[in-house]
């Protein structure tokens, strides 16, 4: 059997379209059923996916310019087609870090064109525009509620915004999911160089959990690695917020456990452990003098143990 | 069917109700049970004579004999949880097997010949352990499983068959009694292809009933854990009935007999929506994930289909309408569609000529992988990392191989822990089992092993190991799944089960009627209670005379009278 997907599908690589590939696959599938011919099916399936991917990439590269011009206004900020595919269209707004360079010149060109030649595109009833405005307005309200000075945000108020009737559709939900995460990532130091985790005072654990419960960042599996990175960051934000919510004594205990684990790790015999009980400063003795000093430094704001 | 002696049947083994269907020249057709009904409640219990009752009779006896009856056991598939019928504890596989056996007899009576093979539907979100438990249940019932079919896929097959040559992409929202699944399918040139599945194995219509029962309890001033088992069962049955009423009416009310007095309870649709809102909210995440996984936008979906009895609830339909800004389709009865689709798959497996030009491919819903350790320093390892082998939503059957090596050269075995799930840490995933790979030869020899994992079309996992040095392949049995039965235990239980006396099929109808009258008696008060009591006595004397004709007449009369009572909210 040939390993070339187009040979297996009996198609001409140079002229085959996506429709041809699907039709050839469908025809062959009826005589290579998964339940009868497992190996044959797996080879056919692999050829089908490979051929389609190849055509998709070729399409994206060869027709890049044509494609971009045909896009609706809302897609101006979107990544090239193959990136959208990889990103599984989670939201119309792409991650800045991935696209900043590629999309910027295009965006500016597009905006110029819009202002100059295509006033129709700005019409009030443009559905994409209305959609974008609605999401933008909701984000503004949410940011105001979250960061208002002197008023810690209430879970009820936050939910009233994100669970509002104007955002009930799945598309609105996906878009908000994306934007709220981007916002939280930005305010927790994800975009710093290098990233540095910090949880602003307004982001209390209950508010974070309400948002996370609604959008499922820390619980929903993701295959795309760059979305997974964002979600992993949210997991760390949650851990930090949880830690910050602990009373001081409990935090000290957590730190101690962490240091102990780091020091002794998986080693069966802790090196230099001298009995463990040194009277009033027993926990210092346990961790060793140096670590004790590090801990002391960590809790400089309170009286040492 | 070309070979009538080998008819495959399709079975929808549900949390609340189960159905059987066959594929005929006229298409898929549902099989009626001994009571002439299409839905057989998934309930099992001992009758007064010590024989086992299945279906409606058992469901009604839940109210009067809760200690001898079990229901909703599908929720415990793949766990070691046991439910007691009297003193004897049963596993979910065993209880399910009684339902399967009843459906099998119904199909045999309908077809006029024996049946020993079936396509059984399972929630798409069932994991490997739950799938294997379903296969064990079928084995207990004397049925060979030709294939397990995912419930939303089955539903899509039933819908897709209607216009098989059109091209379309559709989303199936399947909210059953105990499980929630979302699948996205693409149809082209007779190929039905599942693009993505997502779901929640512990979310279903029964949760709405529980929430409503809590609310009714609040109105009555009782807590579910303080009432008697009988009162609790009646309260839940009432909640179930009011939930159904609320799909049509804006308000439902009924009398509940508590400590000898009738207490009125009322619930509006608004209130019901309010108490079920937290459950409803859990539907959104899997839907968005399925769309995301399929690399689609909501606009790309041509059809939105709702299946499963719980999608009858107004609030569920309203949510789907809000999410997609259009009304969902439900032209095929949501309670029947999965069984019909399972029968289509049975027809496909039996090579029915009417299905020559249809092929269906499905995906695995979970990522599969194993535990690895990452070296983080000199002699230091971080354990518990999840190393994916087959990504979720890959078309099945699929096979992937990988070469693994022992951490230490002196090892003579690798204990490979296999997990299913999406977290990067194994502790958050489901342990499918442990694979003991023997390593032969001394410390200096090459001890790496090639592992090949295969998800079959039923979504069940197989593993083969081939040592690189010897090239001798071994098929490995995955051992120690925390929730599944070892082979020897299956054989033992199979023997024990065959000794259990099952109520004869032809007498199920009488038993069901008696159970229904008793339940009515339990909840009725005053005059009505007396008349139900008289009916029971009359029917028992008719039954003792054993004249089939007379029994038949009596049954029809009593059913009519009971029907009137039920309309009057007696119970």
Main beta sheet of chain A, described? Answer: none
Mean pLDDT of chain B: 87
Category from helices, strands and their pairing of chain B: alpha+beta
β-sheet strand percentage of chain A: under 5%
Strand content of chain B: 25-35%
State mean pLDDT of chain A (0 to 100 scale).
72
Helix content of chain B: 25-40%
Distance between the termini of chain B: 45 Å
Low-confidence regions of chain A = 65-123, 266-289, 301-305
Number of strands of chain A: 0
Helix content of chain A: 55-70%
- Cα-based radius of gyration of chain A, to the nearest Å: 27 Å
Q: Which class best fits the helix and strand makeup of chain A?
A: mainly alpha
Keywords:
heterodimer; A: about 300 residues; mainly alpha; about 60% helix; elongated; disordered C terminus; B: about 575 residues; alpha+beta; 6-stranded mixed β-sheet; 27 strands; globular
In words, what does this structure look like?
The complex is a heterodimer of chains A (305) and B (571). By secondary structure, chain A is mainly alpha-helical. Helix content of chain A is 62%, strand content 0%. The termini of chain A are far apart. The relative contact order of chain A is 0.05. Helices cover 36% and strands 30% of the residues of chain B. Chain B is globular and about 90 Å long. Chains A and B meet through helix 2, helix 3 and helix 9 of A and helix 8, helix 9 and strand 21 of B.
Task: Sum this structure up briefly.
Chain A is mainly alpha-helical and 305 residues long. Chain A contains 14 helices and no strands.
